[in-house]
Structure to design on (300 residues):
């Protein structure tokens, strides 16, 4: 959360919080609805993770105020997300390695 | 400044533009991302290596988990509104919103209690199979985070609120940092819900 806020800024924040709240609720219902369609596994995983990533980004950007945060925090979290992605790719590569064997 | 006083709790450091608490909580959250990241990586490794993997709905209750998702999302909004109330100098509203945040957290735990009880009643334990092992590990660790966040929030709602009378900005910063942790707990659940229950 940035440190200097005017009254107008704060009012805009509240509007943003309500919008994000409604979006998160709607996306939760969409996720559950999509799961009832019984899509093929790969498609279901892709759709569920895309929706979860959008929801997570909304929480991080608006509730955690990353969108207006200082550069140092953005660098720290950017580096963390990069390592997080590598961490998830390692077991995925082990699966790819087995293809054809 | 006394010898024991922590510097930069209110005014930001000139070099980073951040308070000590703010940089501290974000570094802690970075370590938390890697902690849960290791568990998500474990989940992927177990799932791609399994001959068969059950759909979450086979063992788990999707309506209850959806209700819990709604509780946590709602608690995130009330948490940020608690911080906003302090920013606008309204301590009574802070108490209201922070109280609601704690209650939503409590509701989440009550639902989780019923979920876990149903599993145990049906003879489903972490030792039953790989899916249930990773389910109990991930949701159990997440539940501990909910408990931890609730404890800090309850402290700030109750005895810790005394600081508001002597140092408003410092107290507001504490609520902000507690909020960052609480939103992170919500964020983790946003990924746990589809991964464990819907796929």
């Amino acid at each position: 959360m940035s440190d200097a806020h005017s009254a107008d800024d704060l009012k805009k924040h509240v509007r943003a919080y309500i919008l994000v709240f409604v979006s998160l609720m709607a996306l939760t219902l969409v996720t559950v609805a999509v799961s009832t369609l019984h899509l093929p596994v790969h498609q279901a995983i892709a759709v569920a993770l895309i929706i979860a990533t959008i929801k997570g980004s909304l929480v991080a950007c608006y509730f955690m105020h990353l969108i207006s945060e200082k550069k140092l925090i953005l660098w720290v979290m950017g580096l963390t997300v990069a390592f997080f992605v590598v961490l998830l790719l390692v077991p995925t590569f082990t699966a790819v390695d087995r293809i054809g064997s | 400044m006394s010898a024991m006083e922590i510097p930069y709790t209110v005014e930001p450091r000139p070099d980073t533009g951040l308070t000590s608490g703010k940089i501290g909580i974000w570094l802690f959250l970075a370590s938390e991302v890697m902690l849960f990241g290791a568990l998500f990586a474990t989940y992927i490794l177990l799932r791609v290596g399994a001959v068969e993997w059950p759909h979450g709905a086979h063992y788990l209750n999707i309506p209850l988990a959806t209700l819990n998702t709604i509780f946590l999302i709602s608690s995130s909004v009330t948490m940020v509104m608690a911080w906003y109330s302090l920013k606008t100098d309204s301590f009574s509203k802070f108490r209201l919103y922070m109280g609601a945040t704690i209650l939503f957290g409590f509701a989440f735990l009550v639902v989780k209690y019923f979920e876990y009880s149903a599993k145990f009643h049906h003879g489903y334990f972490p030792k039953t199979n790989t899916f249930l092992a990773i389910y109990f590990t991930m949701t159990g660790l997440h539940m501990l985070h909910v408990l931890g966040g609730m404890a800090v929030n309850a402290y700030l709602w109750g005895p810790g609120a005394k600081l508001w009378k002597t140092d408003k900005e410092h107290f507001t910063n504490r609520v902000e940092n507690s909020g960052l942790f609480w939103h992170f707990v919500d964020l983790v659940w946003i990924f746990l819900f589809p991964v464990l229950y819907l796929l």
User: Anything to note?
Assistant: Chain B has one domain: 20-51+61-198.
